[in-house]
Amino acid sequence: MGKVVLAGGTGFIGQFFEKEFKGKGDTVYIISRQEGHISWDDKSSIVEALEGADLLVNLAGKSVNCRYNERNKREIMESRKRTTRILGEAIEACIEPPKLWINSSTATIYRHAEDRPMTEEEGEIGTGFSVDVAKAWEEVFFSFTLERTRQVALRISIVLGKDGGVMTPYLYLTRFGLGGKQGPGTQKFSFIHVEDLYRIVQFIQRREDLSGVFNAASPYPISNEKLMAEMRRKMHVPLGIPTPGWMLEMGAVFIRTETELILKSRWVVPERLLAEGFEFRYPTIEDTLEAVLK
């Protein structure tokens, strides 16, 4: 039995983590803007929760599933920097600080890549707003030098699971015959099953020699075209009408999101995790969709 703190732990990933940690007997504290949890404005309660904790996982930040107007861009950026800074300062105030602090980052930090995979060692950092957010997020995280708290930044790819996340729109598109390739279809889709993401956290917690940056992604990313073909096959939908880029742009405006979430080629592989011996339970898209859709 341990003590786990989930910051921003009320979303899809946080709810899965809470259930799993409690299932193995851990005491779980959640920091959130939602009522019934520790408030981000209650600094003393945050310090109290972190005191003697075995693990802190920070998942906090405004969703990127929105239009990138100036207000939303500011909130996306500041929500990540502010919450990370609050946690770092709270750890510094602890008498017995957490043993491990895992902070979310994003695989979107790498450039659009259709030529080769991006690893922690040889991946090329991209440009643009989403990359700026990821860089600023990690910069705040690693600005804290904590002698008694190990720090790991997880560059998380697109998380798939049964009860939410990005699966919902893909399911609807496929079900209604719109499950063809999106845009050129050649863009890479890096993903991870939410259970494997949880298992990575456990793996890093056990391995006290590990710190720094890790890519949290399946070892076998695929193209968008193959993803949609596999969705149709698993859901027994024979037809999938392709969606050209211009139509995606129109649709993104209508549903108030950005096409980058679909059209950016994320070719990310977990080189460090594989080298350290981590074994994925759902390494392929076939394994992942079988678990998610059954």
From TrEMBL:
Stretches of the chain forming a coiled coil according to its record: none
Gene3D superfamilies: NAD(P)-binding Rossmann-like Domain
Residue stretches making up the NAD-dependent epimerase/dehydratase domain: 4-215
Pfam families in the cross-refs: DUF1731, Epimerase
Residues annotated as domain DUF1731: 243-291
InterPro entries on file: DUF1731, Epimerase_deHydtase, NAD(P)-bd_dom_sf, SDR39U1
Recorded superkingdom: Bacteria
Family classification: Belongs to the NAD(P)-dependent epimerase/dehydratase family. SDR39U1 subfamily.
PANTHER family: EPIMERASE FAMILY PROTEIN SDR39U1, SUGAR NUCLEOTIDE EPIMERASE RELATED
Protein name: TIGR01777 family protein
The species this protein was found in: Paenibacillus gallinarum
